[in-house]
Write a structure and sequence with these properties.
The protein has 152 residues and is an all-alpha fold. It has four helices and no strands. α1 packs antiparallel against α2, α1 packs antiparallel against α4 and α2 packs parallel to α4.
């Protein structure tokens, strides 16, 4: 079995306020997602099975929460959003099985793909859900203050 090198902390996914969407329950679960991805990116090979198991548990709860909100509030574009959640969950479960058989490289590839997938998913699909949930609970759109933005 070939070993793979963990990523340097400076290039792994890290939470920052660029990921804020303005709806606290989503922002909190997204921070946990990002933190777990970063941990897996930086982890030694032997730590990956436990971290991937923790991530899978997080992901189930994360997606179930968002899916429940979309269903109970009749969020209009819920179909494609929920389908994407199901596809990601299926990939994670498949990789858990392969990792249990010793395929560390496929786990590292999954983690890298998730680190690339998340910002776009959050920016496009989850931001719409955050606005929807915020407007239903607070009556308007969220205001998000971000540090370090260039106004140019």
């Amino acid at each position: 079995m070939a070993t793979t090198e963990p990523l340097d902390a400076s290039i792994s996914l890290q939470w920052n306020d660029q990921f804020l969407l303005g709806y606290t329950p989503i922002d909190e679960v997204h921070q946990e997602f990002v933190d777990l991805i970063g941990l897996m990116q930086r982890a030694e090979d032997d730590a990956l099975p436990a971290l991937l198991a923790e991530f899978a548990m997080h992901l189930r709860q994360h997606f179930e929460m968002e899916n429940e909100w979309m269903l109970t509030t009749e969020f209009p574009p819920r179909g494609c959003h929920m389908d994407e959640h199901a596809a990601v969950m299926q990939s994670v479960e498949e990789v858990q099985g392969l990792l249990a058989q010793g395929d560390v490289a496929i786990c590292r590839d999954l983690v890298a793909q998730l680190a690339q997938w998340f910002p776009q998913h959050a920016d496009q699909l989850d931001s719409a859900l955050a606005h929807w949930m915020f407007s239903r609970t607070m009556g308007g759109k969220p205001v998000v203050l971000r540090r370090g933005l260039s106004l140019r």
